[in-house]
Specification:
Elements lengths: L2 E5 L4 H12 L3 E6 L8 H5 L7 E4 L5 H11 L3 E4 L6 H6 L1 H22 L4 E7 L22 H20 L3 E6 L2 E2 L8 H13 L6 E3 L5 E2 L2 E2 H12 L6 E4 L5 E2 H11 L4 H4 E3 L17 H7 L7 H20 L17 E2 L1 H4 L3
Parallel strand pairs: 1-2, 1-4, 2-3, 3-14, 4-5, 5-6, 6-11, 7-10, 8-13
Antiparallel strand pairs: 9-12
Bound molecules: NADP nicotinamide-adenine-dinucleotide phosphate and ligand F7E.
């Protein structure tokens, strides 16, 4: 049985990837950070919480990274943990550089020392490309990062390649364009819209405040995208791949479709809030995933319109359940059964 270690298993991609790898028969370990309020709701929502083994790790703490590797002895490492919100990277540029950039080197170093034969996936991003050029971006397009987040991820991208070329390690960059789902964090624009529209439809909220409605993104469906991560790790030779749908839409398109699904009049409920505009904006991004399609045989399954519908309906159901006094999944109100949490310092000594 193969073992996989997912850093950031509590995030959107971590949870879907855990579910996917379990379905492939993997033993799945995942790292989480100790928070005063636990954050396992996505794993619970997908029904995989009791099936994964959890290890506490902080990206700034090299010893906790080393412990995670020695405790899990992974065949494959999926490095997903990062400060992933572009907007916040302008507010916290230094910690973002550390957690989304330098932390990758910490994990690569720990891998080189403890698990040299393990395969390594780096969660690279379309944000590397920036937004000044027109047309679809492929693996050979120039990089022009436009945020502290993107600059940190560009450093991590290069370190991933450098470890491949210097030490012959199997390290791969998945350059993924935006991918969304009902498990997306509420800060990101798609989930912010689906959640707010659901609440407006039920009379729980009146207005939704947004920033740049003209920004365009190539939005795909997260469960489709985590499969591409696994496919990259099964190749004979490590390489870098763009993963995208090839179609872009504006934030306004997302709002319009979400409002249509719920018969909401968009003009009455949307307000532009200038404080949500970024100091530097990536105006448009669209990807060219020809390489992933040809070599990995990867294809996106869910299109934009179905994605909007899926997200809106999921949020509508959550709020209806809440109104009916049922469980509120993203609150994770109770500390879950902690039998599967490995306390590395103690358990390793016994
Ligand atoms: P996400 O939902 O924000 O998840 C990020 C994960 O990183 C969470 O598990 C988070 O833990 C963890 N984390 C953050 N800071 C940490 C720290 N200091 N120590 C330990 N863990 C920490 O992000 P996602 O959407 O799943 O994305 C996964 C990865 O892909 C990220 O690296 C992101 O930058 C990258 N990416 C995402 C997209 C996209 O469209 N989703 C596209 C391209 C690349 P908590 O749960 O405790 O916060
Ligand atoms: O913004 C605009 C905003 O925060 C999308 C991360 O997963 O994908 C994500 O980064 C667009 C931007 O995602 C609001 O200005 C308008 O142009 O949902 P977002 P992102 O910045 O594209 C990439 C690939 C990653 O790697 C990242 O980790 O929407 N926008 N109004 C808004 N954005 C937000 N968040 N909130 C608004 O109110």
């Amino acid at each position: 049985m193969k073992s996989a270690l997912i850093t950031g298993i509590t995030g959107q991609d971590g949870a879907y990837l855990a579910k996917f790898l379990l379905s492939k028969g993997y033993r799945v370990y995942g790292t989480f950070r100790r928070l005063s309020t636990p954050n396992f709701w996505r794993l619970q929502a997908l029904g995989v919480f009791p099936k994964v083994k959890l290890i506490s790790m902080d990206l700034g703490d090299f010893s906790s990274i080393s412990e995670a590797l020695t405790a899990s002895k992974p065949d494959e490492i999926y490095h997903l943990a990062a400060q992933s919100f572009v907007g916040a990277s302008f507010e916290q540029p230094i910690s973002t550089s550390d957690m989304s950039g330098l932390a990758t080197t910490r994990i690569l170093e720990a891998t080189r020392i403890h698990s040299r034969d393990a395969r390594f996936y780096q969660a690279s991003t379309s944000e590397l490309f920036g937004g000044s050029q027109l047309g679809p971006r492929s693996e050979s397009s120039p990089f022009e990062p436009q945020s502290p987040y993107a600059a940190a991820k560009l450093y991590a991208y290069w370190m991933t390649k450098i470890y491949r070329e210097s030490y012959g390690m199997f390290t791969t960059n998945g350059i993924l364009f935006n991918h969304e789902s009902p498990l997306r964090g509420l800060e990101f624009v798609t989930r912010k819209i689906s959640n707010a529209c659901a609440r407006i439809g039920l009379g729980l909220q009146d207005k939704i405040r947004l920033g740049n409605l003209e920004a365009r993104r190539d939005w795909g469906y997260a469960p489709d995208y985590v499969e591409s991560m696994w496919m990259m790790m099964q190749q004979d030779k490590a390489d870098d791949y763009v993963v995208a749908t090839g179609v872009s839409h504006s934030v306004a398109d997302f709002v319009q479709l979400a409002c249509e699904r719920l018969n909401i009049d968009m003009s009455t409920h949307i307000r532009i809030d200038k404080s949500l505009l970024r100091p530097l904006e990536v105006d448009r991004l669209v990807g060219d995933a020809k390489k992933a399609k040809t070599l990995l045989h990867w294809e996106p399954r869910l299109g934009f319109s179905d994605l909007v519908t899926l997200m809106v309906e999921a949020d509508l159901k959550r709020w209806k359940d809440w109104q009916a006094g049922k469980f509120f999944p993203w609150d994770a109100p109770l500390y879950p059964d902690a039998n599967n949490i490995i306390v590395t310092r103690y358990s390793l000594d016994r």
